[in-house]
Design a protein that fits this description.
By secondary structure, the chain is of the alpha/beta class. Helices cover about 35% and strands about 25% of the residues. Strands 5-4-3-6-7-9-8 form a seven-stranded mixed sheet. Strands 1-2 form a two-stranded antiparallel ribbon. It is globular and about 55 Å long.
């Protein structure tokens, strides 16, 4: 896809330019990202839902799509930069069989939050950077679980497009999103690349070392789960336990 990058919305065409307000862009992008990545990463959400326990905090929660996959938890707190809960009416949190809330906030500038039992980031730090691992580990009590996935090196939107394209017609036919929403999502991602925004990626070993350095002992990796969880090796999946301070 080549510029200009244009979103075809219900009542208007919106050209994505370097001068546009980033918050306006993120409202459109995150709503698309939240909707389109759900069917792509179902196996990942299912795995997280199986292992999450107790009180869960979801860092970069989108509209709270993980809620539908949580099996045995006491509560859920989702945090997202863009207030997707407001845009979607908080429908997932409202239907949850446990206490659930989604709030808007900057992950790198959060107010004090009580540590939970499980901290989740389903696509950890791909824009935020390595510091989000600190936020995840700080968000759980000693003995708590840190779980998520990061993008492996070699990622680009053209690689994503090539990998996902064969499955797109089926997703559209099932009504998971429309052809126009897919094209808008591609336009958003190519626009991000054109701005030179960093997409942070790490090798499996780098993620392992980052977590261990922060006092989180890795207990499960990509090698231990179904390949569908890691999108056939394009994500590094991890579960780690926060060690008690000595």
């Amino acid at each position: 896809m080549k510029p200009p990058y244009v979103l075809e919305l219900e009542n208007e065409s919106l050209e994505l330019t370097p001068e546009m307000d980033m918050q306006e862009f993120l409202v459109h992008y995150m709503a698309l990202h939240d909707k389109i990545t759900l069917p792509i990463h179902v196996a990942l959400y299912e795995r997280i839902g199986e292992v999450a326990r107790g009180e869960v905090i979801d860092l970069g929660s989108g509209s709270g799509k993980l809620i539908e996959y949580l099996e045995d938890v006491d509560s859920y707190l989702g945090i997202e930069r863009v207030d997707l809960a407001r845009l979607y009416g908080g429908f997932r949190a409202n239907k949850a069989p446990f206490k659930a809330e989604i709030i808007s906030g900057e992950l790198l500038n959060l107010p004090p939050i009580r540590p939970r039992d499980t901290a989740v980031s389903s696509l950890v730090a791909y824009i935020t950077g390595e510091v989000l691992f600190d936020v995840m580990v700080d968000a759980v009590e000693p003995g708590g679980l840190v779980v998520g996935a990061s993008i492996n090196p070699g990622y680009s939107i053209s690689v994503l497009e090539e990998m996902v394209n064969p499955a797109i017609p089926g997703m559209i036919a099932r009504g998971e999103f429309t052809e126009q929403e897919w094209q808008n999502y591609l336009a958003c991602n190519y626009y991000i690349e054109s701005l030179g925004m960093d997409i942070h990626t790490w090798t499996d070993r780098e993620v392992h070392d980052i977590l261990e350095d922060r006092g989180a002992r890795v207990i499960t990796t990509s090698q231990d789960v179904d390949p569908a969880v890691t999108w056939d090796g394009n994500l590094f999946y991890f579960e780690a336990v926060k060690e008690a301070r000595k």
